[in-house]
Design a protein that fits this description.
The complex is a heterotrimer. The longest helix of chain A has 26 residues, at 52-77. Chain A folds into two domains: 1-82, Four Helix Bundle (Hemerythrin (Met), subunit A); 85-169, no CATH class. Chain A is built from seven helices and no strands. By secondary structure, chain A is mainly alpha-helical. Chain B contains twelve helices and two strands. Chain B is globular. Chain C has one domain (60-199): Alpha-Beta Plaits (2-Layer Sandwich), CATH 3.30.70. In chain C, 28% of the residues lie in helices and 12% in strands. Chain C is built from seven helices and five strands. In chain C, strands 2-3-5 form a three-stranded antiparallel sheet. A two-stranded antiparallel ribbon of chain C has the order 1-4. The chains are: A mainly alpha, B mainly alpha, C alpha+beta. The interface between A and B is medium-sized, with 20 and 25 residues.
Amino acid sequence: MSISQYIFWFLSFVALISALMVVFSKSPVYSVLSLIMTFFAIAGHYLLLSAQFLAAVHIIVYAGAIMVLFLYVIMMLNLNKEAEPHKKPYIQIISFVAIGLLMVTLIGTLKEAEAIAPSNIANNVGGIGTVEQLGKVLFNQFLLPFEISSILFLSAMVGAVYLSKKNLQ
Amino acid sequence: MDPLLIKAIIVLIIFAITLLVATYSTWGERKVAAFLQDRVGPNRAGPGGLLQPLADAVKMFMKEEIIPSVSNKWLFILGPCISMLTALMTGVVIPWGGDITLGGQTFNLQIVDLNIGILYLFGVVSLGVYGIMIGGWASNNKYSLLGAIRASSQMISYEIAMGLAIIALVMTTGTLSLKEIVQQQDAGFANIVYQPLGFVIFLICAFAETNRAPFDLPECETELIGGYHTEYSSMKLGFFLFAEYINMFISSAVIVSFYFGGYNFPFQHELGLEGNWLTIVQTIVFFMKVLGFVFFFFWVRWTLPRFRYDQLMNLGWKVLLPLALVNIFITGLTMWFLGKI
Amino acid sequence: MLTNRSKQVVKREMTWFEKAYFPAILSGLSITIKHFFMKKATVKYPEVKREFAPVYRGQHVLKRDESGAERCTACGLCAVACPAEAITMTANERKKGEENLYREEKYASVYEINMLRCIFCGLCEEACPKEAIFLTDRIVPSTFERDEFIYGKDKLVEPIDQRVDVSKRQTPAVLEFKKDKHFKHNKTYLDKMLGKAKKH
């Protein structure tokens, strides 16, 4: 095995273990910390795929901002066993089905991706994954989806502002 | 010599210099504070109190280590470790100087020239808050928790404005590598000429990110009796305090690299210096600039009072964020009119 | 309005310029940097000593006369005058052959001042009829033990070869003042003190 393969197995191991810790740990703070570990392992995977930009943004956005907010909320709320909400059975079934569908979709997509991925990554053609390449692809080939997703974020922001203002009155 | 060995030596030297500067920042802080208040500061240990940091370190190591019985032991220890780790990690991408030639081989004084240097810096800085949060939470003390919560909300708020200020800089320089940014400033003017507003925003955010006064709400002594490090003693407290000084040093280095030409100085090519000598002079100039900014950090701390919490949030969200957006807009417009894009 | 210096305070809305805070911050910074270069107020204590005022009241001394005999006659007036009750003493009769040691026939074999009780008011030297006790400009050093603050004769009586200068406390005016025991102030004060002591 080459060194990158060793790193791959190590990162996968860390990612899986910490992902399981997210689900099984009793304290929500531990869950959040394990989730951060998972994100780091996945960022390591991105680096192995020579997608440095994605790795850096992954760390900044998820580990650096979103999980800080999660931790912030959990510390503020001081969650414990009694405060845990009890879900109704039909909600549990619905969420189970939804997650299952998502998983099927992901597996299907990854199966398609398998055909093109290895050749490009192994040769690292034209420095894929660098900021320049990503920017060119994003603003030429995928300009419309990119702009649409930014509009989605804008609407989410407006919604958040509206909800917080409504509670004030 | 083996290139890897030389790189390792450079890493060690930079590591040592970072720690040394941070150590003497404690002395410098006390001296500057004293001088600004018409006192003389520490002057007993060694000439001019120069051995004071040593005495402080000995004191820190000798003190009793207290771990609160109801706290989470491992997270309690992890907090200062993360703070120290992230503080030291940021020094990797700083270009401390130009090339140096040893035995026919050329080496760069920057440890790694990442092509995503700015993003790396930004990522590591955004992780720095975990040390404070975990440490504050694991202390199981309401003041520590309040300090941790304040730290997290402050960091998130000011990171956004900071990132937007950097985006305007990246627009003008067209690169994410710190080395290239510094080299571009050799040819033209320093970036502060192009990005005055961006510099001011970045500077204010740097103060907030390092938790220095007037943004030292996470540890404000008067309200939170030390904030997140209320329960810490001995060298774990030392790590937290030390991390703050390292952060300050690194932020000064980043500001200098971004906006003040890094290791370049005016008329450096007219001096007639070549190769290693030029590099050495450049490095010295770089450190002088950085120490100037470290002094500015001290100066501001002992001049301005602490913000109130709502003022802090207002400044971050209602002033700096729109200003940073306006800065991006102006930068884009100017570049468009000048035909750069 | 007692003076015409009072000012009407107006809390007006800040202008845009003032709200930007930058001018205020800059003026603040300029003030502090001015102090950076100013003369420092610190006196580096053990090397440089601040000059005491002539009326400074520090550690006591029990004086000897010109020939080296102790002036104190253990009359107890200082102990009576002491508002903090810091002074105790035991009187003893002078033996034959001790004339060069003690000036009067009676002397204090034990004389103690508790420096933790003493408030350094100087009433003891005011009460002393023999010019024996004076407060000097020496500082009582700090120690870790309480007993060490009870100063006996070994610390209070001035050594023969190292006389303590009390000329600042014993000015001609003071001597003149103390000479006249019928002086109203001295009389009433001593009467009052003695009366109080009798009552006890």
